[in-house]
TrEMBL record:
Keywords: Hydrolase, Magnesium, Metal-binding. Substrate binds at S58, N59, N60, K221. InterPro entries: HAD-like_sf, HAD-SF_hydro_IIA, HAD_sf. Mg(2+) binds at D25, D27, D248. It holds the Pfam family Hydrolase_6. This is Phosphoglycolate phosphatase. Its cofactor is Mg(2+).
């Protein structure tokens, strides 16, 4: 684990020549929620000038691929729409490959996720009402109102989640033939404010897992399905040592890169701090190969090494 700025010119040249594809996390690397990170678009553009393929990645399904692409464009990132990856396209690909085309899906997730699934041709089961009469009788009657055609349950960030819909998920998942998929498993998230946590969707995945004794199949970063999707779509990982993952989270990005045996660059513009590096509390294999303050530094280093050749 080295500060990228301490490398000699020769070492930097070797580093920048050591990868062809960059898997770049979005939140905390390119921007923090709505605030762009200064220098990030320059860095992506200089990596592209060096011939690197850039694939951007987020676990956030509250935003559509179109919305991400638009926001990237507005922030001066020249990224193809097909190079924006979230658990949504991974889920669609998984459902298609596993023949869920004519089967019903029950979704605990945002309208954005549901719309993307519908647009991809999937039929969604109805969710329960937003409010019910607060009696056990009413709850019992709604909970037993199952749709027999449901073949899969998907749990992701659902900002309007409620007891009835969680129970519906529990009811469907008691049938072993019903597939159980999930998006991000974070139990805590930060929304741009360090040291202030918000409730992550992983807690709800756990509720369903604990209640039904089943394990959800992950579609987000750190999951086998996400890795397979990246491999199929971008031939990423044919030679994993020639992929660089840039991320701001140790527990998500660095772990995912370690699992896929990609090279790891940690930026300190999002979740992680210098003190996380100094008081390392994770297994050794998750340590980044290099770290930098932000992508701005990456841009400056590329200019320093390749300036006249770019
Ligand atoms: Mg991030």
């Amino acid at each position: 684990m080295r500060d990228l700025t301490t490398l000699t010119i020769h070492e930097l040249e070797n580093f920048f020549n050591s990868f062809d594809q960059v898997l770049c996390d979005i939140d905390g690397v390119l921007w923090n929620i709505v605030q762009n990170i200064p220098g990030a678009s320059d860095a992506i553009s200089s990596l592209q000038k060096l011939g690197k393929q850039i694939i951007t990645l987020s676990n956030n399904t509250t935003k559509s691929i179109d919305a991400y692409h638009k926001q990237l464009k507005e922030a001066n990132f020249d990224i193809e729409k097909s190079n924006v990856v979230t658990p949504t396209p991974v889920t669609i690909s998984y459902l298609r490959k596993n023949n869920f085309a004519n089967k019903k899906i029950f979704v605990l997730g945002t309208t954005v996720l549901k719309d993307a699934l519908k647009e991809a041709g999937f039929v969604l089961a109805d969710n329960g009402p937003d409010r019910i009469e607060e009696t056990c009788h009413q709850f019992a009657s709604l909970s037993s109102d199952d749709d027999d055609d449901v073949a899969a349950v998907i749990v992701d960030l659902d900002l309007n989640i409620n007891y009835v819909n969680l129970q519906k998920g529990v009811s469907y998942l008691q049938k072993p033939e019903v597939e159980f998929l999930c998006g991000a498993r974070d139990e805590k998230n930060t929304f741009g404010k360090k040291n202030h946590f918000v409730l992550g969707p992983g807690n709800f995945v756990k509720i369903l897992e604990n209640t039904t004794g089943r394990d959800a199949i992950g579609m987000a970063k750190r999951s086998r399905c996400m890795n397979e999707y990246l491999m199929e779509k971008f031939q990423m990982g044919k030679d994993p040592s020639r992929v660089l993952l840039i991320g701001d989270s140790i527990s998500e990005d660095m772990v995912f890169a370690a699992q896929c045996t990609y090279q790891k660059l940690l930026v300190l513009s999002g979740l992680s701090t210098v003190s996380d590096l100094e008081k390392w509390a994770f297994p050794e294999e998750y340590k980044p190969d290099f770290y930098v303050e932000s992508l701005k530094t990456v841009h400056e280093l590329i200019e320093k090494v390749f300036g006249t050749k770019l």
